[in-house]
Every structure is written in C-alpha cells, then in structure tokens.
Amino acid sequence: MIDDYPAQADRGTTSDRPVFLHVFNSFGCGGAQTRFVQLANHFGSTLRHVVISRNGDYSGARQLEPGTDVTLYPWQESKTSLHRQFRQIAGALSVIRPACIVTHNWGTMDWVLANARQRIRHIHIEDGFGPDESLRLKQRRIIVRRILLQRSDVVVPSLTLKRIAERQWKVPCQRLHFIPNGIDCARFAARAVEHGFSRSPDAAPVIGTVATLRPEKNLSRLLRAFSLVLQQRLCNLVIVGDGPDRPRLELLATSLGIESSVRFLGHIEDPVQCYHNFDAFVLTSDTEQMPYTVLEAMAAGLPVVSTNVGDIMSMVSAENAPLIVDKDDDQIAKAILAAISDNVLAQQAGSSNRSTVARRFDRSAMFAAFAKIYQLHVPQLYDTREVA
User: Fold this and answer.
1) What pTM was computed for the model?
2) Which residues contact 281 (CB under 8 A, 6 or more apart)?
3) Which of 61, 145, 235, 387 has the maximum number of C-beta atoms within 10 A of its C-beta?
C-alpha cells in the first residue's frame, strides 16, 4: 500500500485523489528531473505524484519543497527476464493504481509496453538521446516508438524532437505536444546586472560549464579547445558537475598540461551562484535538445558558446548566434576567445540572452501547458484555474 512507503519519502500523500505515476530510468540529476521538480513544487498538494526510479537513485528529490504531494516508490529492478520485469511492473501498478502513467525517455519504454494491455492513461515525455544515438537514431527504437506511442500523448521540449516525432515516430498530430522547458528566470538573473561580465580589468576570465560528466556531453572536446585558448589568453575553466567521465577528464587535463587552470567542482545542488562567477558559458555536447543549463546561463546574462546541436541555435538570441559553432575544437576555441575578449559582443549577447529567455522560456508558460495535459488525462481532477 502507498501508506507503507518509507516515511522519509512520503510528503503527505493522501489516498483519495488520483495518482500520476512518473517512471524515470534515474531520478538523479538531469533536465527531465529538473522539470518534474519544478512542476511538483508549483502544483504543491494540488496534484498527487508517485515517482519510480529504475536505478534506485532518488537524489533529484532533494529539490522538492515541503507541501508537495510526491511519494518515492521503493524499487529494485528485476533483471532476470523480460517476463519477470513485466510481472514486477504489473505488481507495482496494482499497488499504486495510477490514473495516469508518465514515462520518460527510451529507458522506460518497457513500461509503455507493459501498459499496452492495461490501457491506463499514458503520457510519454522525450528529452533527447544518449551517446549511442548521438550520430544516428537506431531504426529499431524508431519502430518501437512508432508502434507503442500511437495511443499516448507525447510531450517534447524541442522543435528538433517534434520533427522526429512527426516524421519518424509517426505520432498523431493531436497527440503530440511541444512544451519548451521553462525556468525561474528571476532567480538566475538576480545578480546578473550587478555582476556584469568582468569582475575587474586585470582578472583572468572564467569560462564555465554545468553538466553531468557523461560521454554524450563530450567534455573532452571542451578541454582540448580550452588548451588552444590558453595558448592565446590567460583564463580559467570551471566544470560544475559529476559523473562517470570525471576520472578520465581529469587525466586528460593533466596530459594536456592545463590542470592548473581547470577546476572540477563536482556536483553542486544549486548552481545558480556559479553562473554569476562565469564570464562565458560553454557547452560542447554531441547531442542535446533544449538543455536547462543553456537557459540558466542565458537568464544569468551570459554569452553562450555551444556546439550547434538540438534547438540551441534557436534558443539563444540573434546577438549570440555567432558563438554557436560546429563540433570542432578549433571553432570552439575561437568562439570562446571571442566571448571573453570582445566586450561588446559579450555584453550584447548576454543582455539579449537574458531578455530572450525571459520572453520565451519563463516557466509560467510551461506550468500552464502541463496543467492542460494533466487535466486532459484526468478531466474530473481539478478546475483549470486551480492547477494553472
């Protein structure tokens, strides 16, 4: 029973309201988790959620505020056979009895398949692809999505994913919902105006990134580009985040002879202050869609240097567009140098980025769009004015 969940995970769940069951491959750090936490905090006790993390990582729940109605369901994945996995899923569904299942990304597609017979209302959210699909999408996964998502409402945060969902997954137009990620622009912009882009005329510029250290983020590319920048300009690189690639990246920094100019800060629960200590933000991923870190850097008034992946070119302001380049070490190095050496470019890009994100990506629009999606699946749940 829901009342038997671990006490520290129970945030006031009541048994008289419909449940939205959210299934994540991991509920650690990432854009999907950040978005869910924002939504849960916004709706508070108005909506009732249960979260399953397939790998047992629930660290993303630390950002949930008191008063949210979120229960973390204890889960230990069965890995013996697909049949046993389906029995385990069916058992969880019989205990939780959700009104709607919300699955996230390819790693939860077996939950979609298991639900095909039960026909519980279903929302599937796709945020992007891992390193195994950074260059080319796998045909088998395209076919599986095409078959399983015909009866589901599919939510995507980027225009790139919207095109893929339309053309390759063949999601019916009435079931496809484009909802851009949104952030609390005011919180990230709080010190942007007073901080500016240089702490003092003689201070070495700080280049920063915030990322989970995974292969698809390709921080090796950033380190190589930064080594080229150091040949022309004294500066520092700060990497915020942790992950499986950290030991390899630290070794690479040493082998490039740049370790004294690179700081690995590890995971920081709330990195908002970090952005205000950067002069430029850099992202060198192989694959992205609509990364939260780019939105956060824009809200902090920073120029953004990035590889041209996903929707990033359309996210940033027109003034920032010259800093979005190909997946090439030399081009990234040149863009970084421009961002930290051309004060006019940096200030124009940063200022217009802040205006752009406030106009197009404030989280109020995201909240309203998800309120409509939730109510679409449980129409008797609440008055639209109550959840918006």
Assistant:
1) 0.83
2) 207, 208, 209, 210, 275, 293, 294, 297, 300, 302, 303, 304, 305
3) 145
